Amino acid sequence: MSPREEYFVRSLMKDVIDQEPYYALVQCRSFDHAMLSTQTLSLYQDFEELALLYIHRKDVAFFTLLSDDSCDWMMMMDDNEDHHQTLYQNTDSLSKHDSNGMVRIVAIPPRSNSTNVERHWIPQAYFHPTLFPKTYQPASTNDIMAFNMTDFALVHTTPSMLWLDRRTTATLAFPTYREIHFVLFIDVHTPRAKDGSFDYDSKSYHETKTAIDLFYLASQQHKSLRPLQDVVFLIVPSTDVQILKTFGVDIWSEMDRHCTSQRMTTKDQTAQSECIVEDIPQLPSAMITSRTESSKYMKVYHLDLDKQILSKKKFPSTNPLSTFLNTYFDNPNALKPTIKSETQVVSHDKKTPINTLSGIKIATANTFESIVSSSPHMHSIVYLYTPTCGHCKRFHIIWKNFSQLIDKMNWKNHLHVITMDISKNDLFVDVSVDYVPAVLFFRKGAKDHPPVEMILEEDVIKGGAGGGGEEEREEKRLDHNLGGLSDAKVIVEWVLKMLDKEELEEWKRQTLIQLEKEKHEDDLKEEEQKAKGGTSRP
After folding, report:
1. 3-state secondary structure of 525
2. Per-residue pLDDT tens digits for 279-330
3. Listing from the earlier edge strand, what are the strands of the sheet with 122-127?
4. For a pLDDT cut of 90, what percent of the chain falls above it?
5. How far, in Å, are 87, 202, 245, 513 from residue 276 at the CA level?
């Protein structure tokens, strides 16, 4: 980010930054060292390591308090009885030393311009493995210890809103246990003058500033209504092209049409060579992404903001961003997730819709389930790729050869061979696809069986202690996985391993039938050639 862009971001975020609280993490420690358990000593060490991790955060401080009694008093800092009941549901069974090592977060609001306003430390959440309430756990975490002190601190000290930056804020925004993200996409392209400087009086700047202010208010309301529900509020600028493409936010097609129209309707040479877009119609827009235990896949919900509301000088009486988030939590059935899917797959001439190419079915997000489940007596094998994947371009040839082998062995009535571009289509399956090319096998009746991913493995020989012990073999996944595959027969062998004994025998029988058929056809051709006086085959 250039200094000019950084100044622009600060101008948009200034009101938010000025209202962010300061945090203190306080750990209670006992004088009674004789009673320290291994777990307590570990908590002490974790706290000290955490303080080092936060050394760059000027808004977070760390303190230790020595107590000659139990640390239970740290749980009684909140005067709100309802909140007390919610947070401290596991305190009845505490012994005197159970709470030793507890960490409590307290916050203090920033200094106000008014000197008469008193500031007080406000108790927030607390952390201790024994006491950690179930309500603080991410939904996908079954082990209470899996949510450690670092995770706890990160969740509760994240600023109200984060500006997406790959080098800094991305680590705060995207750890695996942060499951819900509320994202605001904003326009930082068009609030600029011809010389590239930012125009702070432009319409698009005003709309973006209003959207950010509403976004901040939504974050504050969420913290007030749902203090135990972790949501990352993330601002993504239009310059982050990869993120926009990933979530299907297309700002370029409309701009291309605008510029093309401008060039066709003007005779001005300067206007034909330069296209100035005063506003990006699709931005600002908002999106909620959710990957929780209750929904096996990441769901995406989009909200297109009304620019007429954003362009007004006064704030709207109802915050559309708050309404959107409240609906997600309070009435989730009222929202329909957005599915990224190609409307149709077309041939190379970009005119003819196609569903099958060289015997391979081409699936989109909208057609995938119907293809896999269209024939309940057939298995399905799916090749996942992206156009920019180098290994995929090579694997296309292997996959075509595989399809031809399936046809040659007369298995096409037993196995769907499918491809899908996952850069343009969402895939909802019970397996995490981390690499492409990837191949998934879906058993017939796929709804009752999770898919199986094909993983190439190599044998690794490990020597015993001192090099003289018995050798040990272990399997290790190849880094490039299917990208290094050179023979389609390897896929055939893997598919056969997926079959039960009866199916395997049936597939072999079908292959023999096909071989007999081919032999019979060859014999007929030979007889025809002899009848015509031709030469027989060698």
Report:
1. helix
2. 777 788 999 998 875 555 678 899 988 877 777 767 777 899 999 999 999 9
3. 60-67, 22-30, 103-108, 122-127
4. 14
5. 54, 13, 22, 67
Please give the DSSP secondary-structure letter assigned to residue 55.
Answer: T
Query: Tokens 């420690």 label which residue?
Result: 29
Query: What would the pLDDT profile of 126-159 be if each residue is shown by its tens digit?
Result: 776 665 443 333 433 333 334 578 878 887 888 8
Phi, psi at residue 514, to the nearest 5°? -65, -40
CB 97 within 8 A of CB 34: no
Q: How far apart are CA 313 and CA 216, in angstroms?
A: 17
410 forms bridges with which residues in the sheet?
Answer: none
177 token code pair: 């246990």
- Of 168, 179, 171, the closest CA to residue 154 belongs to 171
> Encoding tokens for residue 84?
């007390």
- Using one digit for the tens of pLDDT, what is the confidence trace for 428-485? 777 777 778 899 999 887 566 788 888 876 533 344 444 444 444 344 444 456 777 8
Which residues, in sequence order, are bridge partners of residue 303?
Answer: 286
Largest Cα–Cα distance in the chain? 114
Instruction: Give ∠ CA 259-260-262 in degrees, rounded to 5.
Output: 60
164 touches 234 (CB < 8 A): yes
N residues, the chain: 538
Question: Cα-flanking dihedrals φ and ψ of residue 385, to 5°?
Answer: -150, 170
CA distance 199 to 215: 22
Q: What SS3 state is found at 415? A: strand
Sheet holding 379-385, edge to edge: 356-357, 360-362, 415-421, 379-385, 438-442, 452-453
Copy the structure tokens of residue 273.
Answer: 């060579």
> Beta partners for 462?
472
Q: What DSSP string describes 89-129?
A: TT-TT--TTTTTT-EEEEEEPPPPS-TT-----EEEEEE-T
**Residues 361, 383 contacting (CB under 8 angstroms):** no
pLDDT top residue among 294 and 10: 10
Residue 422 vs residues 338, 339, 432, 435: alpha-carbon distances, Å = 15, 12, 13, 11
- What 3-state class would DSSP assign to 453? strand
Sole residue written with tokens 């927030």: 124
Tokens linked to 175: 């750890």
Picking from 277, 251, 249, 272, the residue whose alpha carbon sits closest to that of residue 262 is: 272
**From the centroid of its chain, how far is CA 292?**
11
Q: Which residues contact 22 (CB under 8 A, 6 or more apart)?
A: 59, 60, 61, 107, 108, 110
Give the N- to C-terminal CA distance of the chain in Å, as an integer: 72
Q: What is the pLDDT of residues 63-93, one digit of tens each?
A: 998 876 656 666 555 544 443 333 333 444 4
